[in-house]
Write a structure and sequence with these properties.
The chain is α+β, with helices and mostly antiparallel strands. The chain contains 13 helices and 24 strands. It has 4 domains: 160 residues, SH3 type barrels; 88 residues, Roll (SH3 type barrels), CATH 2.30.30; 107 residues, SH3 type barrels (Roll), CATH 2.30.30; 92 residues, SH3 type barrels, CATH 2.30.30. Strand 1 and strand 2 form a beta hairpin.
Length: 505
C-alpha cells in the first residue's frame, strides 16, 4: 500500500488472523506495556527505560532536531509497528507480525504508541523510538509482503476488522516517505576510522596531541592518543577540541609530537596535499579565519567564561597568548596554573565566552577568582588589576542572537564534558540567554555544567538507543554508583588550586 503525496492513507492491506497458540508474554509497569522491540542497540539501552522514568518524574523530553519534519509528528498520526501480542515467533525475522498504532505522545525521539482497536484502553500503551528500524509508515507492510494481525488481547473486540480500519486509517496522517532518510542524513559523520588529526591533550589542556580515530558512533569520535598508549578521548566531530594535521603549527599552539610528525605537518601546510589517512580541513568545524583587526581579542583583556575544567562555574577570565586565525589562549582568573599548563584555547566565535556583566544581566551567579576578598564588581576589579575589558562587539553571543528552545525541567541525554565518554540521563536546570545549565540526574549541583543551547553534546531522549551508545542511568539516591564516581574524579576544592585542574578524564 502506498501513501499519497501528503502522507495520508489511501488503501488498506490484507489482515492475518492469529492462530490459537498461547500469546507471547508481555510485562507491564505503571500502566504502560514494556516492550523491547529488537534493535542493534538493545544491549546498550536495556538497563534504563525512558518511558517509565518520564512517568515517575512527571517530566517531558526536549524537542528533537529537524523541527520542520519532527514538528509534524503529532498525536493521532498512524504507523505500522511490531505486534508483540501475537502467537508468532518474533525471534524468526520471517515471522515478524505487525499492526497499526497511533501516536499518543512524542518526547524527543520517542513516542508513546497505542494499537488501533484499543480505543480508550491505555493498558497496552508502549514507548518506542520512532527512528527504530521496525517503525514504518502505513502501507509499508503491504509493499513488502509483511503480515498484519491485531493483538490477541483485543482481537475479539471487532468482528469486521477491515471495515474498522477503513474508518480509522483512510485519510489519516502517517510518517512521510522522507522520514527515515532525513534521520539517517542528520546522523552522517564525514570522519572515518584510522584518520589522523590533532586533539586536545586531556592531561595538559594547554597542549595538543596527535590522535587517530578508532571508533565513530552517532557523530562522536573515539580518538586514541598516538603518544599515550592505552589513552583515548571522546569528542563530537564538530568539536572545537579537534583540528586538522598541521593546525597547531599554523596558529602557534603548543603540541606534543615527534620531529617526523612536525616535518610532515609542515610539508602538508606548504603543499596543501593530504595523504588518504589524514583528515582534511574541510571535515572540521568551519570558523572564520581572516578576521578584521578590530574583531581580534587582545592579550590581557578581561571577559567572562564558562570554566572549561569546572563547568558549573562562569568566571572572570583573561586573554593570554593571542594565536593566529582568531584563536587565543584563555586563563581563568585565580584558578589557572602559573605555568599556563591549564590555559584553554578558544576561537573568537566561541559561544562559551561572554562580555563582562553578562552574568549580571542574565541573573547568573558569577564565580569570583578563588581567594578574592569582598563583593565582586567588574568596575572595581578592573581598577584593582589595572586591566581593560574585551568590547561587547567581539563576542559571538552578542553578534548572533539565537532562540533558545529549551525550558527548565526538560529531559535530555547529555555528554558529561568532564568525562566525555559518558552520555547521561540529564535535565535542564536553568536557561539563560544562549546557555542551558545541565543537571545530571542523581548528582549534586557541583556536577552541573553550563553549555550552549546549540551544543552537539546534548541530545533528545532516545538518541543513545538510536545510535547504539551506552546511556548512563541516574544515580540512585539510596546507593552510591561507585563505578561512575571513579570515572568522575575531577571534583575540585572550592578554596584552592589543584593539579586536577590540568586534566580532563
Amino acid at each position: 500500500m502506498a501513501t499519497t503525496s501528503n502522507e495520508t492513507v489511501s488503501v488498506l492491506p490484507s489482515i492475518t488472523s492469529n492462530n490459537s497458540s498461547p500469546p507471547q508474554q508481555i510485562s507491564r509497569a505503571n500502566g504502560a506495556t514494556i516492550i523491547s522491540i529488537p534493535t542493534a542497540s538493545a544491549d546498550a539501552i536495556a538497563s534504563f527505560s525512558w518511558g517509565n522514568y518520564l512517568k515517575e518524574t512527571n517530566a517531558h523530553g526536549a524537542p528533537a532536531p529537524l523541527q520542520d519534519m519532527w514538528g509534524q509528528l503529532t498525536p493521532g498520526m498512524k504507523v505500522e509497528v511490531i505486534n508483540t501480542d501475537c502467537s508468532y515467533n518474533l525471534n524468526d525475522p520471517k515471522e515478524k507480525i505487525f499492526w497499526f498504532a497511533y501516536i499518543v505522545r512524542v518526547e524527543g525521539y520517542l513516542a508513546l504508541l497505542r494499537y488501533e482497536g484499543c480505543d480508550d484502553d491505555s493498558s497496552m500503551d508502549f514507548w518506542c523510538n520512532l527512528c527504530n528500524k521496525d517503525v514504518h509508515c502505513v502501507g509499508w507492510c503491504g509493499q513488502h509482503g509483511v503480515k498484519l494481525a491485531p493483538p490477541r488481547s483485543i482481537e475479539h473486540r471487532q468482528t469486521d476488522w477491515k471495515t474498522f480500519l477503513v474508518n480509522k486509517l483512510v485519510g489519516a496522517k502517517t510518517l512521510p516517505d522522507s522520514f527515515r532518510p532525513k534521520i539517517q542524513s542528520s546522523l552522517r559523520c564525514p570522519f572515518k576510522k584510522y584518520m589522523l588529526l590533532e586533539v586536545i591533550d586531556k592531561f595538559q589542556v594547554a597542549h595538543m596531541c596527535v590522535g587517530k580515530i578508532s571508533e565513530v558512533i552517532g557523530g562522536r569520535l573515539r580518538i586514541n592518543y598516538e603518544n599515550k598508549p592505552g589513552e583515548h578521548f571522546w569528542v563530537h566531530h564538530t568539536s572545537e577540541l579537534i583540528h586538522p594535521v598541521g593546525w597547531s603549527y599554523a596558529v602557534g599552539h603548543k603540541i606534543e609530537a615527534t620531529d617526523e610528525y612536525e616535518n610532515e605537518a609542515m610539508k602538508i601546510n606548504e603543499t596543501n596535499s593530504y595523504p588518504a589517512y589524514i583528515a582534511t580541513p574541510d571535515l572540521f568545524r568551519n570558523v572564520p579565519v581572516n578576521l578584521p583587526d578590530d574583531e581580534h581579542f587582545k592579550e590581557g583583556q578581561k571577559l567572562e567564561a564558562v570554566d572549561p575544567l569546572e563547568m558549573s562555574r562562569i568566571c572572570p577570565a583573561t586573554v593570554g597568548k593571542v594565536l593566529k586565525n582568531g584563536y587565543f589562549m584563555l586563563s581563568i582568573d585565580g584558578s589557572s596554573a602559573e605555568d599556563g599548563s591549564d590555559w584553554f584555547c578558544y576561537h573568537s566565535s566561541s559561544r562559551l565566552i561572554f562580555p563582562i556583566n553578562f552574568c549580571k544581566t542574565n541573573k547568573i551567579p558569577l564565580s569570583p577568582p578563588l581567594g578574592y576578598q569582598g563583593e565582586f564588581e567588574w568596575e572595581k576589579y578592573l581598577l584593582e588589576t589595572n586591566s581593560v575589558y574585551a568590547p561587547q562587539e567581539l563576542f559571538q553571543v552578542i553578534k548572533e542572537k539565537t532562540i533558545n528552545p529549551f525550558t527548565v525541567g526538560m529531559k535530555i541525554e547529555a555528554v558529561d564534558m568532564m568525562a566525555p565518554h559518558l552520555v547521561c540521563v540529564a535535565a535542564i536546570a536553568k536557561v539563560a540567554d544562549n546557555l542551558i545549565r545541565v543537571r545530571f540526574d542523581g548528582w549534586g549541583d557541583d556536577f552541573e555544567q553550563w553549555v550552549d543551547c546549540q551544543s552537539m553534546n546534548i541530545y533528545p531522549i532516545g538518541w543513545c538507543e538510536l545510535v547504539g551508545y551506552k546511556l548512563e542511568p541516574p544515580r540512585q539516591t539510596e546507593q552510591e554508583n561507585t563505578e561512575l564516581v571513579k570515572q568522575r574524579p575531577w571534583k575540585k576544592s572550592s578554596t584552592r588550586k589543584t593539579n586536577k585542574r590540568k586534566r580532563l578524564t
